[in-house]
Amino acid sequence: MVGLETQAYWHIGQVELNWNFEVIDSKNESNFKSNNGKKLPSFFHTSQYASIAYWFNKLSLGVANLRRYNMYYDTANLAKAPNQNIWSLTANYHHYPWKLGMHINNLFKKQYTGFQTEPLPGRSIIFTFSITN
After folding, report:
1. Which burial class, exposed, middle or buried, applies to 81 when counting CB atoms under 10 A from its CB (0-12, 13-18, 19+)?
2. pLDDT digits (tens, 9 = 90+) for 51-87
3. Cα distances (Å, whole numbers) of residue 75 to 44, 47, 71
4. Number of separate domains in the chain
5. Alpha-carbon torsion 9, 122, 110, 44, what sign?
6. Which end of the chain, N or C, is less packed with Cβ atoms under 10 Å?
7. pTM of the prediction?
8. What is the domain extent for residue 57?
9. Is 79 helix (H, G, I), strand (E, B) or coil?
10. SS3 label, residue 31
11. Beta strands across the sheet bearing 15-25
12. Are the beta carbons of 109 and 75 closer than 8 angstroms?
Protein backbone atom coordinates (compact mmCIF):
# COMPACT_ATOMS: atom_id res chain seq x y z
CA MET A 1 0.00 0.00 0.00
CA VAL A 2 1.36 3.40 -0.99
CA GLY A 3 -0.13 6.74 -0.09
CA LEU A 4 0.35 10.47 -0.21
CA GLU A 5 -1.06 13.06 2.15
CA THR A 6 -0.62 16.80 1.96
CA GLN A 7 -2.00 19.67 3.97
CA ALA A 8 -1.89 23.44 3.64
CA TYR A 9 -2.98 25.99 6.22
CA TRP A 10 -3.12 29.75 5.77
CA HIS A 11 -4.05 32.41 8.28
CA ILE A 12 -4.45 35.70 6.43
CA GLY A 13 -5.77 38.54 8.55
CA GLN A 14 -9.12 37.37 9.90
CA VAL A 15 -9.41 34.44 7.49
CA GLU A 16 -8.26 30.86 8.07
CA LEU A 17 -7.99 28.47 5.13
CA ASN A 18 -7.28 24.76 5.48
CA TRP A 19 -6.86 22.17 2.73
CA ASN A 20 -6.00 18.49 3.00
CA PHE A 21 -5.66 15.86 0.29
CA GLU A 22 -5.02 12.14 0.72
CA VAL A 23 -4.68 9.36 -1.83
CA ILE A 24 -3.95 5.71 -1.09
CA ASP A 25 -3.05 3.18 -3.75
CA SER A 26 -3.72 -0.26 -2.32
CA LYS A 27 -3.18 -3.49 -4.17
CA ASN A 28 -4.78 -6.74 -3.10
CA GLU A 29 -2.15 -9.48 -3.36
CA SER A 30 -4.64 -12.31 -3.14
CA ASN A 31 -4.23 -15.94 -4.19
CA PHE A 32 -7.61 -15.60 -5.92
CA LYS A 33 -7.23 -14.38 -9.49
CA SER A 34 -10.50 -12.41 -9.34
CA ASN A 35 -9.19 -10.33 -6.40
CA ASN A 36 -5.49 -10.08 -7.20
CA GLY A 37 -4.38 -6.57 -8.17
CA LYS A 38 -7.69 -4.99 -7.10
CA LYS A 39 -8.04 -2.21 -4.53
CA LEU A 40 -8.51 -3.27 -0.93
CA PRO A 41 -12.09 -2.80 0.30
CA SER A 42 -13.43 -0.94 3.35
CA PHE A 43 -11.94 2.55 3.04
CA PHE A 44 -11.95 5.50 0.68
CA HIS A 45 -8.83 5.64 -1.44
CA THR A 46 -9.07 9.38 -2.14
CA SER A 47 -10.26 12.16 0.16
CA GLN A 48 -10.12 15.93 0.14
CA TYR A 49 -11.02 18.34 2.92
CA ALA A 50 -11.27 22.13 2.61
CA SER A 51 -12.46 24.72 5.10
CA ILE A 52 -12.62 28.46 5.49
CA ALA A 53 -13.30 30.39 8.68
CA TYR A 54 -13.66 34.08 9.38
CA TRP A 55 -12.93 35.68 12.76
CA PHE A 56 -15.12 38.50 14.11
CA ASN A 57 -13.18 39.43 17.24
CA LYS A 58 -13.96 36.41 19.52
CA LEU A 59 -16.46 34.73 17.18
CA SER A 60 -15.41 32.46 14.32
CA LEU A 61 -17.75 31.25 11.59
CA GLY A 62 -16.73 28.55 9.15
CA VAL A 63 -17.77 26.25 6.37
CA ALA A 64 -16.09 22.97 5.42
CA ASN A 65 -16.37 20.35 2.72
CA LEU A 66 -15.23 16.73 2.82
CA ARG A 67 -15.14 14.71 -0.41
CA ARG A 68 -14.33 11.01 -0.41
CA TYR A 69 -13.97 8.74 -3.44
CA ASN A 70 -13.21 5.17 -4.47
CA MET A 71 -14.34 2.80 -1.74
CA TYR A 72 -15.29 -0.76 -2.59
CA TYR A 73 -17.54 -3.06 -0.60
CA ASP A 74 -15.95 -6.26 -1.90
CA THR A 75 -12.48 -7.60 -2.66
CA ALA A 76 -13.27 -8.12 -6.37
CA ASN A 77 -14.16 -4.39 -6.68
CA LEU A 78 -17.54 -5.20 -8.24
CA ALA A 79 -19.56 -3.20 -5.69
CA LYS A 80 -18.37 0.40 -5.46
CA ALA A 81 -19.62 2.68 -2.70
CA PRO A 82 -21.12 6.04 -3.68
CA ASN A 83 -18.75 8.98 -3.41
CA GLN A 84 -19.37 11.32 -0.49
CA ASN A 85 -19.66 15.11 -0.58
CA ILE A 86 -20.33 16.34 2.96
CA TRP A 87 -20.74 20.01 3.90
CA SER A 88 -20.51 21.38 7.45
CA LEU A 89 -20.98 24.70 9.23
CA THR A 90 -19.36 25.75 12.47
CA ALA A 91 -19.54 28.68 14.87
CA ASN A 92 -17.30 29.15 17.91
CA TYR A 93 -17.17 31.85 20.55
CA HIS A 94 -13.88 32.16 22.45
CA HIS A 95 -13.68 33.96 25.78
CA TYR A 96 -10.65 32.76 27.70
CA PRO A 97 -10.67 30.33 29.45
CA TRP A 98 -13.82 28.93 27.85
CA LYS A 99 -15.06 28.18 24.34
CA LEU A 100 -18.64 27.63 23.20
CA GLY A 101 -19.36 26.03 19.83
CA MET A 102 -22.04 24.77 17.47
CA HIS A 103 -21.33 22.43 14.56
CA ILE A 104 -23.75 21.27 11.87
CA ASN A 105 -22.42 18.20 10.07
CA ASN A 106 -23.87 16.87 6.80
CA LEU A 107 -25.65 20.17 6.26
CA PHE A 108 -27.73 18.96 3.29
CA LYS A 109 -28.73 15.73 5.07
CA LYS A 110 -27.52 13.44 2.30
CA GLN A 111 -27.80 9.72 2.90
CA TYR A 112 -24.52 7.78 2.80
CA THR A 113 -23.52 4.25 3.64
CA GLY A 114 -20.49 2.82 5.44
CA PHE A 115 -18.38 -0.21 4.59
CA GLN A 116 -21.06 -2.74 5.54
CA THR A 117 -23.62 -0.70 3.54
CA GLU A 118 -25.18 0.40 6.83
CA PRO A 119 -26.71 3.89 6.72
CA LEU A 120 -24.55 6.63 8.21
CA PRO A 121 -26.06 9.47 10.26
CA GLY A 122 -27.81 12.24 8.40
CA ARG A 123 -27.52 15.82 9.59
CA SER A 124 -26.22 16.25 13.12
CA ILE A 125 -26.06 19.35 15.29
CA ILE A 126 -23.46 19.32 18.03
CA PHE A 127 -23.03 21.87 20.81
CA THR A 128 -19.69 22.03 22.62
CA PHE A 129 -18.36 23.77 25.71
CA SER A 130 -14.74 23.60 26.82
CA ILE A 131 -12.53 25.20 29.44
CA THR A 132 -8.74 25.51 29.08
CA ASN A 133 -6.16 26.81 31.50
Report:
1. buried
2. 999 999 999 999 999 999 999 988 888 889 899 999 9
3. 14, 20, 11
4. 1
5. positive
6. C
7. 0.85
8. 2-131
9. coil
10. coil
11. 2-12, 15-25, 46-56, 59-69, 84-95, 98-105, 124-131
12. no
